[in-house]
Write a structure and sequence with these properties.
The complex is a heterodimer of chains A (about 200) and B (about 475). Chain A is an all-alpha fold. Chain A has seven helices and no strands. Chain A is globular, with a radius of gyration of 17 Å. Chain B is globular. The relative contact order of chain B is 0.10. The chains are: A mainly alpha (about 200), B mainly alpha (about 475). At the A-B interface, helix 6 and helix 7 of A face helix 5 and helix 6 of B.
Chain lengths: ~200, ~475
């Protein structure tokens, strides 16, 4: 059942979690923020899909987070090394996440006017998630960050796509892709650390 | 029994089964025999028709239901299944000679299954999800656990994953275009989304930087398999869009875009190839130009475009398989595949270096080799439409030819003290010899695969007219 207040609260949660994910360099915080991101995404998905299907997305997201968490827990390295490339630093990342927030605030009403029926919170959530995800992909080469970025982009897309396509097959395949991405991420994390620890 | 069960589920299950097999040879034989059998079934047993063997009657139905949607492999797709599984059998039989059967075959079979499922799923727009699943399976195959994942693998994962949402969104927009065909802005949005999606999936210029990195940092045979199979299926997927939407296949902008991108890939791939100093990267650039050829073929109007696109299918698969096998053999004892590391290797690996030279020349369209007939036909067809395009086509081919000659010069260079001491084993010689023979036979008799390839355009009701 669509509830605008709950939906906007989910958008606020996504904004905080996304910004935190971009700023944080501690893997524990990152996992918590990723889980919060999936909670917000599931609330937005529930605006258009039945609660059961939205819950599936939440469970899939949390399972993915758990898989990544279990991997990061056992890895020998946990330090958050600096990026190789300029620009970097917390201020820069904060500025970029602010840009995404401004972008979302600016273009959500326009898109909402063109695509009636989807809802402004869903559009804003989509822009936030994909924007922050692309930002992570574009500003970091670190494996966990790449995976978090891809998962964020995918979650943003799922929020939007749930509003236009309600097929069970698509929901199932997207869940498999999300989980698969988490597992592949965990695999790559282990592979990346194996050589470092050797 | 249904066709999706035979050509989707069986490869995936057998792929899972081969994970527990131990011997390289057993895995290679299992994978090769399974794929060859599936290709033979696709050729012999008609789909949706009863086949009688005395008292026994076998019928493979074309569709199966899955999560409320259909997976359909109609009789017109049987030749494509035969080609895909036939070429997969070739790759898998060669995997033992390349020393990567355990790394390639189990996950390779699963990838085949997912990609065939992407051709079968209805509505076909959902295919991009299955392509993404095959990409996810390909990552551990490309980057085995003991090896640090290189940038090529990560970019491969990122770019392919980013392609999926664009295709799905394009599908949603295309449904809107169908209901209101006069809406120009919606049409433009759908075309842009579709273009971006396929640009990511096919690694169109400038999104192909991961291909040379992949060939540089990963095993050439495994990377070559991915570079052969994925674009082949994605191109068929792309042709489904052209077949389904009349405005798309008749749009001059789409045709110009396809042709321009194809030529850009051919020219840039050819030029990079001319200056490359790494055997793996040379093959990567050749595979980029192969995608360029496919895009140019798709841009040609009517049945000739479809026929030309499919004409590349078999020579491309054979040529890339042979090239990748040659690189795998040469790379076994070399520190890397960079030019300084492989100088004079022809004295140690004469068969592999011969295969390398012929595969490179075939990619450049050298006469009497497999790559020559489709390139010549495409060049002629392109010259009918645009002379400037034909000239740029020649530039790309010249770049590839320079690359092929340079790699030949590097491997045959006579370093002081080197003597002829061939070290390839009998399996490597056999597989390389068969590949060379196939390359020459396809060059001399290009109509050899016509009994299968000739039926492929029937998959597309509108494009084949």
């Amino acid at each position: 059942m669509p509830n605008p207040l709950v939906a906007w609260m989910a958008v606020a949660l996504l904004a905080m979690a996304g910004t935190g994910l971009l700023l944080s360099r501690d893997w524990r915080w990152e996992l918590g923020l990723l889980a919060a991101q999936y909670l917000g995404a599931a609330v937005l998905v529930a605006q258009h899909l039945p609660l059961g299907m939205a819950a599936t997305k939440l469970v899939t997201g949390w399972m993915t987070t758990a898989a990544l968490g279990m991997t990061l827990t056992v890895l020998p390295y946990r330090e958050q090394s600096g990026e190789e490339y300029w620009p970097q630093g917390r201020v820069f990342r904060l500025f970029m996440s602010g840009t995404i927030l401004v972008l979302a605030a600016a273009i959500t009403p326009r898109i909402d006017a063109v695509m009636a029926g989807i809802g402004a919170p869903v559009i804003a959530g989509t822009i936030l998630l994909t924007g922050i995800g692309l930002l992570q992909l574009g500003t970091s080469q670190r494996m966990p960050r790449v995976i978090f970025g891809l998962l964020s982009v995918l979650a943003g897309f799922e929020v939007f796509y749930a509003a236009v396509e309600s097929s069970i097959l698509v929901a199932g395949l997207l869940a498999v892709v999300t989980l698969g991405l988490g597992l592949v991420g965990a695999y790559l994390l282990v592979a990346a650390s194996a050589e470092e620890s050797a | 029994m249904s066709a999706p069960l035979v050509w989707i589920l069986i490869p995936i299950l057998i792929g899972g089964f081969t994970l527990v097999l131990l011997g390289e040879r057993v895995i290679a034989l299992t994978g090769g025999v399974v794929c060859a059998s599936l290709a033979a079934i696709a050729l012999i047993v008609p789909i949706d028709e009863a086949l009688r063997f005395g008292p026994l009657s076998i019928k493979i139905s074309s569709s199966a239901s899955f999560l409320g949607r259909s997976l359909v492999l109609p009789p017109t797709e049987a030749p494509l299944l035969a080609v895909i599984f036939g070429l997969c059998a070739l790759w898998f039989f060669g995997a033992e000679a390349a020393g990567v059967a355990r790394q390639l075959i189990p996950l390779g079979l699963m990838i085949c299954g997912f990609l065939v499922a992407s051709l079968a799923v209805q509505p076909f727009l959902f295919a991009s999800l299955l392509v993404e699943m095959s990409v996810l399976v390909a990552v551990p195959m490309l980057s085995p656990g003991e090896q640090r994942p290189g940038r090529g693998v990560i970019r491969f994962l990122v770019y392919q994953t980013l392609g999926m949402p664009f295709i799905l969104l394009a599908g949603w927009l295309l449904a809107g275009v169908e209901t209101s065909p006069g809406d120009l802005s919606l049409t433009i949005q759908a075309t842009v989304m579709l273009g971006l999606g396929f640009a990511f999936l096919l690694a169109v210029f400038p999104l192909y930087d991961w291909i040379p990195q992949l060939m540089d940092q990963n095993h050439p045979y495994v990377a070559g398999f991915v570079l052969w199979l994925l674009p082949s299926i994605v191109v068929v997927f792309g042709m489904s869009f052209l077949d389904r939407y009349a405005w798309l296949r008749t749009s001059p902008n789409v045709i110009t875009g396809l042709r321009g991108m194809g030529l850009l890939m051919l020219v840039t791939g050819g030029l990079w190839s001319a200056f490359a100093r790494h055997l793996g990267r040379l093959m990567a650039y050749a595979s980029i130009t192969e995608t360029g050829f496919l895009l140019i073929s798709m841009s040609l109007a009517g049945a000739s475009g479809v026929n030309l696109t499919f004409a590349f299918l078999v020579p491309r698969g054979l040529s890339l398989a042979l090239w990748a096998l040659a690189l795998a053999v040469i790379g076994k004892s070399a520190a890397s595949l960079s030019f300084p590391s492989v100088q004079g290797r022809a004295r140690m690996y004469p068969w592999a270096c011969a295969a390398l030279a012929l595969a490179g020349l075939s990619a450049a369209g050298f006469p009497l080799l497999a790559g020559f007939p489709p390139r010549l036909a495409l060049w002629q067809a392109l010259a009918h439409d645009t002379i400037a395009g034909a000239i740029w086509f020649l530039v790309g081919l010249i770049g590839l030819m320079i690359g092929a000659v340079r790699q030949l010069a590097v491997v045959v260079v006579n370093k002081e003290g080197d003597r002829w001491a061939p070290t390839e084993n009998i399996i490597q010689r056999g597989m390389l010899g068969l590949g060379i023979l196939g390359l020459v036979l396809l060059g001399m008799f290009p109509q050899l695969p016509a009994f299968v390839v000739g039926r492929l355009p029937l998959m597309f009701e509108h494009l084949s007219r």
